[in-house]
Structure formats: structure tokens, C-alpha cells
Amino acid sequence: MPWIQIRLNSNASNAEALGDELMETGAVSVTFQDSHDTPVFEPLPGETRLWGDTDVIALYDAETDMKLVIAQLENSPLLGAGFVHKIEQIEDKDWEREWMDNFHPMRFGQRLWICPSWRDVPDPTAVNVMLDPGLAFGTGTHPTTSLCLEWLDGIDLEGKTVIDFGCGSGILAIAALKLGAAHAIGIDIDPQAITASRDNAERNGVSERLSLYLAKDQPQDLQADVVVANILAGPLRELAPMISVLPRAGGLLGLSGVLATQAESVADAYRADFEIDPVAEKDEWCRITGVKHF
User: Fold this and answer.
1) pLDDT at position 27, please?
2) 230 belongs to an annotated ligand binding site
3) What gap in Å lies between CA 64 and CA 5, rounded to an integer?
4) What is the reported pLDDT for 11?
5) b/e 103-133 (16+ beta carbons within 10 angstroms → b)
6) Is 242 helix (H, G, I), strand (E, B) or coil?
7) CATH class of 137-290
8) Would you tell me the crossing angle of helices 66-74 and 15-24 to the nearest 10 degrees?
9) CA dist list (Å): 162 to 53, 196, 217, 222, 248
10) What pLDDT score was predicted for residue 132?
11) 145 is annotated as contributing to ligand binding
12) Cα–Cα distance between 161 and 289 in angstroms, integer?
């Protein structure tokens, strides 16, 4: 059925409260959208990450009396009379199909493809990871994930052990296994990420070679030949002592989730233990790689 949409501009301090008020007026859903296309990192579990300038968008049944909704909102201390807004009619669509059409097979490096289950595999002879968008972050669409996948495709993983620190959907660990790694270890602070990684590993036939741990439960003496961490610049700096001990001597480290303006400070946190390579950049995001000192 058709819908009515109202769009209001807000900010990080009151967007959630405004969203609650919109739900009280009868909205069936409320979403937040960056009004200036500002890059935003994945929120931590339980956190709602909002932008400095945020469009709050509410969806109503087409039969809703929007004059009544506007009257209610004008009484809100967050808005007041004459607040700026935009009301639009939204056509009826097959929203599930619309969502699915946004995802398609993607190639990373020379051999690796990430493919949603409802699409045909473009190259059956390639290394194909079947991965659908789900509970946890990571489908290959974000430049940071893309940078990590391209790096994994370009290094020799045959027979190696790989740690995916902050595994999310498990995309990097699963890709490493399908690229030849003997064993992968996924670590995350979010139980949903562990569930998603396990499910995706089973779908790709690599679950027997993947070990998964909540960060609080990971073994103390854990080490690997290759360590990849696609998280946030702040945690990468703060956790440098913990992450730096994970690669063996001569092992490889790959870090992402870092904007170009943050790359130098993140790299500096690891220089004492690693020979840092030139930084790779894609769409304002960066990948930092290095080799562990002997």
C-alpha cells in the first residue's frame, strides 16, 4: 500500500527524542539519515551512532491525517510552531525485492568474489564467498571491508592461520579460509557477530576450520600468521598492545576502519612492533599493513 513520509532536520543531541515523538504521533517507522553524507563508523553493540546534522524520516499509513500530526508536532518543545518539514507521498513497492536488488556479486582482487545467495555466481572457477546482509556488519560494500578483502586476496594464505579481530559477519575470516588459509579465528565483543559468523561459515562449508570467541573469552596465548582488524581508529589505537602480540614474528598485520586523516596516528601506534607499509587509500578510507619484527 502507499505511504506518507515526513522529513525533519535534527542533530545528534535530539534526533532520538524527536524519533520517539514521531512514533507517538502514529508513525510506523522512523529512520535517521545523514544530511551531509558524513562518513560514520559501525556503532558499537547497543549504541546508536548519529550524525551532526541528521534527517529524521517518519513513515505513516497513507490514510493518516497529516494536519493532525503537524499540529501535535508543533506542540513539541523540540520543534515549535512553524517548524521546517517536508511531506511526500511514497509509492507502493515490493520493498524486499527493492532491498535485494541493491546487492550484487562483487569482485575483490584477482580471485575473490562476494556473492549474495539470490544472485548467480559470475565465475564458478573463482573463490566465491556466499554472504547475505544480516545481523552483523560486513558485506563487502564498505571501502574498509573492500580494502581488507583485496589485501587478503593479494597475500599468500596457503596453510596459514588467520585472526579476524572484530569479525562482524565473519566475511574476512571466511574469505581467508576460502583463499587457502588452514585455520581462522574470529573475535568480537558482540554475541550477534559470533552467531552471524558461525552461520555464514556453515553456509560456505568452512565452519570446521573457524574458531570463534567473544573477546572476553579468547585464549591468552593466541597467535597467528596473519591478523586483520577492520574496526575503528580509536579502538585500533587503544588496543594496539593487545593486537600487536597476535601476529607471530614475521607475521602480517592488516588494519582498516580508518579515515585518511586518522591513518598516521593509527600507524604510529604499531610502528614499534611492525615495519609499516605505505598506506592504501580508497574513498577517504585507509588500510594500514605491516610485517611483525623478528
Assistant:
1) 93
2) yes
3) 10
4) 80
5) bebbbbbebbbbbbeeeeeeeeebbbbbbbb
6) helix
7) alpha beta
8) 130
9) 39, 18, 18, 11, 11
10) 77
11) yes
12) 17
Residues of the chain with CATH 3.30.70.120: 1-88
Q: What is the pLDDT of residue 204?
A: 95
Query: Measuring CA to CA, which residue among 224, 235, 215, 130 is closest to residue 174?
Result: 130
**C-alpha distance from residue 87 to each of 72, 206, 229 (Å):** 15, 49, 42
Q: Which residues does the chain have with pLDDT short of 70?
A: 1, 35-52, 91-102, 133-141
Q: Where in the chain is the domain with CATH 3.40.50.150?
A: 137-290
Joined grid coordinates for residue 193: 557477530
Q: Which residues contact 209 (CB under 8 A, 6 or more apart)?
A: 177, 181, 182, 183, 184
Q: Residues 6 or more apart from 65 whose CB is under 8 A from it? A: none
pLDDT confidence of residue 135: 46
Give me the count of residues in the chain.
294
SS3 content of the chain, % helix, strand, coil (to 5): 30, 30, 40
48 is annotated as contributing to ligand binding: no
**Cα 143 to Cα 282: distance, rounded to the nearest angstrom:** 6
**Residues 6 or more apart from 71 whose CB is under 8 A from it?**
none
| Nearest residue to 227 via CA among 277, 278, 292 | 292
> What CATH number labels 1-88?
3.30.70.120
